[in-house]
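Revision sheet: structure tokens.
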Amino acid sequence: MKHRLLLILLLVLPLTSVAQINTDRVMMIGRNALYFEDYVLSIQYFNQVIDAKPYLHAPYFFRGLAKLNLEDYPGAEQDCSEAIGRNPFVVDYYQVRGLARIHQEKYSEAISDYKQALVHAPENVGIWHNLILCRMREKDYDAARADITHLKTISPRYVPVYLMSSEVWLKQKDTLKAEADIDHALKLDKYNADTWSVRAMLHLQQERYKEAEEDLGEAIHLATLNVGNYINRALARYHQNNLRGAMSDYDYAVDMEPNNLIALYNRGLLRAQVGDDNRAIEDFDRVVELEPENMMAIFNRAILRDQTGDYRGAIKDYTTVLEEYPDFIAGYQQRATARRKVGDRRGAEQDEGRVMKAEIDRRNALFANNDADKEKKQEEDDEKGKTRKKSNRNVKNYRKLVVADNEDLQQRYKNEYRGRVQNRNVKVELEPMFVLTYYYKDSEVDRSVNFHKMVDELNNARVLGKRLYITNHETALNQAQVNEHFTSVDNYSAAIVEAPQRADLRFARALDFYLVQDLSSAVEDLTQAIMKDEGFVPAYFNRSVVRCKQLEYQRAEEAAEREAHDSQLQTKAELPVKQRGMLHEYELIRADLDKVIELAPDFEYAYYNRAVLFCQQNDYHAAIVDFNKAVEVNPRFGEAYFNRGLTHIFLGQTNEGLADLSKAGELGLFKAYNIIKRYTEVEE
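Predicted:
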């Protein structure tokens, strides 16, 4: 107990004697925070280790990794350089520094990092992937082609390499070979949404709009929440004069991403085209609010205000545009008309005079030299077509639909180093367990609030520092919140000294320990709370979740070690020992959840969590029983339907699984539709 209290003080107070901290333990807590995506918190822990032992290389790397995820790319690069300076033989250090340099557009330096990494890991697909993309950014297509050929040899079924290859062929003006690579990628994996998107973009470039629409439809089925696919399909539909379909796609895009400038601008143009002027004005209002310097949006709004009788508003907008583009003749023409409508005859005549003078000057220039002729031809070329790139700021293109500047959808750098650094394999996963905590992530759609009278009663007792929620989508803490909960640990520690028998104080401090990722201390406090009140349901529930997180992290660490040290795997004698240890942990977690169900049989989240636990142990039949009970208690429990659907599929009961996934999608878990698509595809 004394040791634990000492550690608490060392974590929350300025370190007067850094050499005294248990760096291994602090390092472990820091990595734990990183794994669970608490980046700000993890940096604090790694700082302590670096202060105590600045000669270590690992804490610099992990701090750099946290900074990378916080988009502090110069800081990430510096920390990785510090790690490399102390140990130049770790591949991960070069990979993460390479990513940090890419985000700073230091492509040649990133190439150097990836070359060095390949010395130590010559068959690492992710390194080759990023190296090729950097070559392409540097426009070194010959080197990129050579690397692509090598990567195809190493990993012939690696789909992204064929997408990169297609991009290189396009840069080299070989459309046939580009299309052949994309088609081959689809043969390898027809469930890769990026591949369908890439082929669709190729078809758009070739003005094969029907094929583009079909491919984007496939991409949308596989990646329901990808806004860009809806915007691109709208473009394909527009070119086929399917205005209703295009409008529907823009509506979807704006619903999912209300601040998407391209979707808002294009929908405004489309609404204006079909005569829905007032709602078109609303779209351009929003664009201008988000991007006040967007003169094309302002000019479109001016025309619409003019058409709807808001002449003074139109004049104001025309004037704003002309102040920015004083040679924009169409602006003077439009403003002159609006000024006549409000009785400003003098102003209208001034604008008309400006238009006349500009026309005379243009004709004189055409006769004077050929440069003006070339300039006119360039302007005409710019005005051709129905679209413009977002970066095109030529106000004369105000009526054109906007497309993204970067059409290279396949150029996504491979990053295996997000918060959960040990999770290298992306797969269909169950929804996570629920926990009682103070913070949660907002959902992309409005969904029902998780509630239980037990939690409400605990909140009403006003012992806790904040309102407690039931969630399975936790969020990382910011710096202020981290500091707040470190302070809270101190405050509750003092309160516990005054009232050592109070279980609620132990529970409250356990929440703080949990939020700063000190999971061991959280378990200790929850155990003490239960010892003091054997009927304290929230303590049993949270202890089961914290133990699960400890077990998850342990498994991930061991998997990472096996991956990094294939030649140094544990002996056959060691393996059963570890397995027995994990089995014991599962039994402890199960016992806690059993107790929760005994004490609160209407608490659906306990059945749900126990079902997830059974799935982790591959006991799918037992999991189904508990998921059944969860939806019996709460028929609108979307996560339970989703997980039960996946569990049915794991058991080969596809029809039952699809029915559950459909219900989950109906209740707001949109990713269920992606999985439904996979299992309803008719084999050719």
